[in-house]
Each structure stands twice: as C-alpha cells, then as structure tokens.
Amino acid sequence: MERFRVTYRITGNEEEAYARAEDICLEQTVEFPLELVPAGLIRDHLVGKIAAFSPDGPGFYQAVIEYAASAAAGELTQLFNVIFGNISIKPGIRVQAVHLSESLLDGFKGPRFGREGLRRLVEVPRRPLLFSALKPMGLSSRQLADLAYLFALSGIDIIKDDHGLTNQVYAPFEERISLCAEAVDRANRETGQHSVYVANVTAPHDKIISRARFAKEHGSGGLLLAPGLAGFDAMRRVAEDDSIALPIFSHPAFLGSYVLDPASGISHYALFGQLTRLAGGDGTIYPNFGGRFSFSREECQSIVQGAAVPMGHLKPIFPCPGGGMSMENIPEMIEVYGREVVFLMGGGLFKHGPDLVENCRYFRSLVEGLA
Amino acid sequence: MERFRVTYRITGNEEEAYARAEDICLEQTVEFPLELVPAGLIRDHLVGKIAAFSPDGPGFYQAVIEYAASAAAGELTQLFNVIFGNISIKPGIRVQAVHLSESLLDGFKGPRFGREGLRRLVEVPRRPLLFSALKPMGLSSRQLADLAYLFALSGIDIIKDDHGLTNQVYAPFEERISLCAEAVDRANRETGQHSVYVANVTAPHDKIISRARFAKEHGSGGLLLAPGLAGFDAMRRVAEDDSIALPIFSHPAFLGSYVLDPASGISHYALFGQLTRLAGGDGTIYPNFGGRFSFSREECQSIVQGAAVPMGHLKPIFPCPGGGMSMENIPEMIEVYGREVVFLMGGGLFKHGPDLVENCRYFRSLVEGLA
User: Fold this and answer.
1) Could you read off the pLDDT of A61-84 as tens digits, one per residue?
2) A198 and A58 co-located in one domain
3) Which member of A32, A74, A229 has the closest CB to residue B77?
4) Is A6 helix (H, G, I), strand (E, B) or coil?
5) What is the pLDDT of residues B40-74, one digit of tens each?
6) Active site residue A251
7) B257:A265 CB<8 A
8) Nearest Cα to B237, choosing from A208, A19, A128?
9) What is the pLDDT of residues B235-291, one digit of tens each?
C-alpha cells in the first residue's frame, strides 16, 4: 500500500527523541493509545512507522516517519493534518521536509505556470524578474493605478497589490482591479513590454473565487494570496480553477510563527518551498536576509531548494525575496540567487531617489547588468 | 474615525521595544517607510498609533496599538492580517489580546449557539458537558456508528468524529455521517436524552459548505472544524450560514506553532479564546494541562477567560479541554473549570476499564457527583 514520508527534527537525547518519534506515529494517525489500536490493517498500515532515525547535531535527532497515503484522503487539508496537525502543539518537533509519493502528488495539480510559464507570460527569458507593490493603503484606486502605470512604464515586470489591500473603502476591490489592470495594459501598449498586474485575492472564504474570476476577466495577469490568512487549500483551489488560470504569488503574512523557532514548527524549506508549491503557488514571497525581517541567508537558500527540488510533476517555482530590499542588496542577491529569482522591491524603490521612474529604471539596469 | 486596539507583548529593553512598537504601526498598515507616508488621512489615521506602552516583566514591554477599523475592510482575513500578518515573521512580538470596537464586532455574527444555545440543544442546563471522539481512523463507518451508539447510550452528550476523519476510503464522509447520526438518534430514542453527533467538516476549500450542509440534512447535531487547516474564515463562513445553523467545535490542529513560544506568536487567550469566538466557534477544543500536551494550567485558564470576556454581542463559548484526559483528572478539572466546561475524553474513555459503556457511565456519574 502506498506510503509517503515526512522528515522531522526532534529535540532531546536519543531515548527522548525516539519516544517522541513513536508518539508522532500515533498522534498523527490513530490518536489512540497503542495498546488499544486494533490489530490488522490499522496497526500494520495506518499507524505511522519510523523509517529512519539518526542524530542531527547536538541535542537533536532526525526521524523519517512513513504514513499511509490513504490517511490523507487526497485532500491538502488532511495531508497537512497528517504532516503536522496535532504535533504542532507539542514542543520540540519540526517538520524538515516532505517526501510525497507519485500518486499522492498526482492528486494535486500544483503550480499552473511555474518558472517557465511565468517567464513566458512576461516574455523575460533569462534575467531575474522585477516585482514591486502598490502601496500605501489609503491611496485611491486612481492613485494606485497611476503608480502601476509608472512601474510598468519603467520596466517593472510584475506589479502587485500590497498584501493589505483587499476591499477597503479607499480602493474597493473591483474599482482598483479594473483601473490598475487597465493602467498596466496602457503602459504595455506604450513600451511593447508585457508587465502584469497582480491582484490580491486574499479574502473571505466565499469571496476568493469570485474575486479571482473578476480579476481574470478585468485584465489581471496574476494573483496574490496569503495562505496563512485564507488557508493553503484556498490557494490550491484557485490554482486548479481553469476559469482563472493565472499565476499565483504566495504571501507569507500570518505564517511567520511556523518558522521562527528552529526547534519547532516547519522549516523554511518545507513551508515556503515544498508546501507552497504543492498548494499551487507559482512564486513564493518571503523576507530576504539582510532586510527588515530575520531570515538568514541559509534559510533563504533553503527556500530556493524547496522551490525546485524534484517533486513528481510539480513545476519548480520562483523564489521572490522581498521585505526591505534596496538597490544596495542587488549584487549580493544575484550572487546568492542567480537568475532564477523574482526580486521584490517595495519601499526601497521609492527611497532610492526622488524620481520613481528613474529608480525603477535603475533597478532594471542594475539587474540587467549583473545577471 | 473608528479604531480598534491590539495588545502586544514585545521583547527587549525599553528603547528596543518602543522601536518595535513603532515598527508594528507601519508594518501592519502602510508597510512603507514613515518618511514616505503621505500626510493627511494616511499618516494621521491609517498608520497604527501607540496608545499605551509599559513594562511587562523583566525583558518585556506591553504596547497597545490602535488601528483604523477601516483597514480591516470588514473581513476576518484582513482583520487577522492587521493584527498579526507581517509581524508574525518578526521575532519578539506576541499578540496578547484584541479589543475590537462595537461596530467592527457588529460585522461578525460570531458563535450562533454559544454556551446557552449548546446547553439547550443537548438539554443539559447545569453540569459540565461530556464530549468524546470516534476513533481510530481505519474503522469502517459501521464500526464508528456502533461506537457512536454506545457513547450516546451511556450518557455522552457530544460525540464527534476524530479530527483526522475526513473522507478516507475506510469511512467515506457521506456514509459515515449518515450512519453515525442515525446511530446517535437511535440511542436518543432509547434513552430519552439529546446527545448530538458532530461531523468533521475540515475539508478542501470547495467542499466545506457542501459537507456541512450534507451533515445538517442527515442529522448531525454539530460540526467540527480545524481553522488551522481550513482557515479561520471558513469557520466564520459556516457559522454564518443559515442553511447550516449547527454549533461548531473548533479543533486546534496545525495551530500549535502560534502559541508555543511565549515571546512570539499569539497568546492562548487571544487565539483559542477571542479569535476562535470571533470566527464563530461555539466550543474551543484545546489540550488540557497535565495531559499529553504542554499547556500550563494558567494558559488553559486564560483560554477560559478569552472564551467569555465581554466582546460586544459575541456569546460566551465553551472551553473544551481534552488531549490525554483520564478519569483521574476530573476532580481537579472541575476545581479549575467549574461547570461551564465541556470535558473531552477520547482514549481515556477506552482505557479506564474493559467495558466502554461502563466507562462512559462512570465518567458521567463522576461529573454529576462533583459538579
């Protein structure tokens, strides 16, 4: 019977860590005392099994636990539950990586575009893509559209709503989407380029699909969604909808608590890489090292790995480091990330000099010169 | 203009903590360097304001930050984003409590039943309610229904699916719900009591509402939903649906990472109390102190407070401590929780003695004798 595996990092000495690994096998499946688990299928197949167990640096052990694929019922929500549901509440257990079986992966479409699809969409075959955000909240839809126009005119490939723009009275969703998409389209006609406007569809449960469809129908070239707020399965749902068929950028809002403590939660690799990709993100936004957040260079590099590690038919997706980037960071970022990256610069684009258009052009030329 | 407040606990000395509080004001709203924030409405109104700042024990400060209600756009997803979206990624910031304005609260229906409504439903006016779970995963729908029958026959008030039961081949959703609801109904006809079967509707985004409606139509008396897996707004959506109109029990799966580190994330009080209630949970399930999880007695007591603190029109909800409870815990739990509690005992009910019916009856008489 088909199985999949999850690698956990467990705190403790060998005996404690092994006991925790055994506990995970029960907690994540039958949630029942072992002595009461019925013999046969349930005990032999559904209870998790420790497939490997080894030291992982001082005070830590690594356990690979195997689960029956049938426990996940083909549902992303239930797969996440088996991976880390109840044990999220137990200290000293961190999901390091998932290893999903082919037919389990076949149940999820994953990213519709991936890196290649996104490059084709914006017609940028080689260099890193340039990404910025419409902000601050409180501007009118017209003002945001004017900004979108300037960004597109001056060479920014992807222009997204700030993730806090949803349906505020200052720039209501439908009005904002229509005006911003039109503005980017107008700039494209002038430049001959193919910038895209990315509408934020992080929204109440019953509004996500309708907003995504509205965005599609009104010229958005992509969507922004924060799975920490809307649920990872909402992203999966949007990604799989053929009537939408737009690239999705996953935003990390409300997800930080999973990664901050290195001894619990979920690794950067798994959360912002593997699981975001499994849920259909084409780009994974995360705070870059050296910005105003706390991720290390190594953690950022691990996200890049999770975004591209072989996972059956799932396409590799773009790392989108942002969060306090400035022009000064670009050379080092190109060293670290190479070409397969989307650079997200928000406030930094405004701060570089007094003229936004000049700043954007400088950003573009800097990247073109280096990559 | 209407505003709401959030209390954060911030790590650091006075200067560091104050700088972090100022940073929260920007990060959670305009996400823009202060010097670039346009004067007028945006700077005066949308940027968060530090309303209070004071020491909170060695190495910590407490900051109360005020936000414009309009920033939340009347959406639970965006309200959560303003409360803790980006700053979830910054270490040393913990949401302690939320203080929502009346008209902001008026935008959410909250729990449909609350404590009183749930008591009326099961016709138990005074004593603590008894709650158990159908498990383990791998049993057939028929076997789970037989268990549900025994639980109801022997005095358990609320009988829920284990939170890992979704739509596995072993007990597919529709079959399981129909058989289990019928079994509880049959037991009720024999006992004259009013036990309810609670169907797990934690499911893919596009299946939650249809499963909840199916459960309602086929005799479920309540629903189980894990907002960490499905999204808090999915719970809000189900709670507000008049065609469903069933009490909801919120399960903590996948939420543990928010509470484990006392210096970051969200407090037990806010997450399992206030926010679960705001999202429409009628009962909030969490691991009891002294069980197989790690919550302290004080943390559990804070959940009880968050479940009942005045929050406009929102009804008080039931704390549902579980997770490794046994008969031995009951006297202390009654001391701590009093009568306004739902005791969730799963494996412990099976372990107490060889006869499940006797065990359930003992559980009931123990609670009736003490409360």
Assistant:
1) 999 999 999 999 999 999 999 999
2) no
3) A229
4) strand
5) 999 999 999 999 999 999 999 999 999 999 999 99
6) yes
7) yes
8) A208
9) 999 999 999 999 999 999 999 999 999 999 999 999 999 999 999 999 999 999 987
- On the CB side of B26, CA atoms within 13 Å amount to 16
User: Of A79, A106, A133, which one is at a domain's C-terminal end?
Assistant: A106
**Average pLDDT estimate for B299-317:** 98
From the list A160, A163, A251, A315, the catalytic residue is A251
Query: Would the CB atoms of A261 and B266 count as touching at under 8 Å?
Result: no
* Pairwise CB contact (< 8 Å): B231 & A226: no
Residue A169: CATH number of its domain: 3.20.20.110
Task: State the pLDDT at residue A1.
Answer: 81
Chain B residues whose CB is inside 8 A of the A75 CB are 166-167, 203-204, 207
Residues B82 and B138 in one domain: no
Kindly determine whether residue A30 and residue B136, on different chains, have CB atoms separated by under 8 Å: yes
> Same structural domain for residues B43 and B189?
no
What b/e readout covers A71-97, taking b as 16+ CB neighbours within 10 angstroms? bbbbbbbbbbbbbbbbbbbbebbbbbb
The total number of structural domains that make up chain B: 2
pLDDT digits over A121-134, tens only? 999 999 999 999 99
CA dist A122 and A7 (Å) reads 37
The model's pTM is 0.98
Q: How far is A166 from chain B (nearest CA, A)?
A: 7
Domain span holding position B101:
3-106
Give me the sheet containing B93-99, strands edge to edge: B49-55, B60-68, B3-11, B93-99, B265-266
Q: Could you say which of B106, B138, B162 is where a domain stops? A: B106
pLDDT at B343: 97
Size of interface A-B (CB pairs under 8 A): 288
Answer yes or no: are the C-beta atoms of B88 and B31 closer than 8 Å.
no
What residues in B contact A258, CB-CB < 8 Å?
A: 257
State the nearest Cα–Cα gap between A126 and chain B, in angstroms. 30
Same domain, residue pair B286 and B234: yes
Provide mean pLDDT across the span B140-161: 98
Best of A70, A78, A268 to disrupt the B interface (most B CBs within 10 Å) is: A78
Q: Is the pLDDT of residue B359 over 80?
A: yes
CATH number of the domain that residue B54 is part of: 3.30.70.150
How far does the CA of residue A289 sit from the closest CA of chain B (Å)? Answer: 12
In the predicted model, what is the mean pLDDT of residues B330-338? 94
- Cα(A171)–Cα(A281) distance, rounded to whole angstroms? 26
Instruction: Examine the domain organization and report whether A160 and A251 are in the same domain.
Output: yes
Whether residues A206 and A233 fall in one domain: yes
pLDDT at A345 over 80: yes
The answer to whether residue B371 scores a pLDDT higher than 90 is no
Q: Which of A222, A243, A270 is nearest to A113 (CA)?
A: A222
Mutate to test the interface with B, among A90, A94, A137 (most CBs of B within 10 A): A137
Q: Name the residue among A371, A318, A345 with its Cα closest to residue A117.
A: A318
Residues A84, A212, single domain; the answer is no
Over residues A4-25, the mean pLDDT reads 98
Å from A256 to nearest chain B CA?
A: 4
Contact state of A139 with B42 under an 8 Å Cβ cutoff? yes
Crossing angle of helices B208-217 and B173-191, rounded to 10°: 30
Which of A37, A71, A137 lies at the smallest CB-CB distance from B71?
A137
A267-294: string of b/e by CB count within 10 Å (b at 16+)?
bbbbbbbbbbbbbbbbbbbbbbbbbbbb
Residues B271 and B193 in one domain: yes
Please state, rounded to an integer, the average pLDDT across all residues of chain A: 96
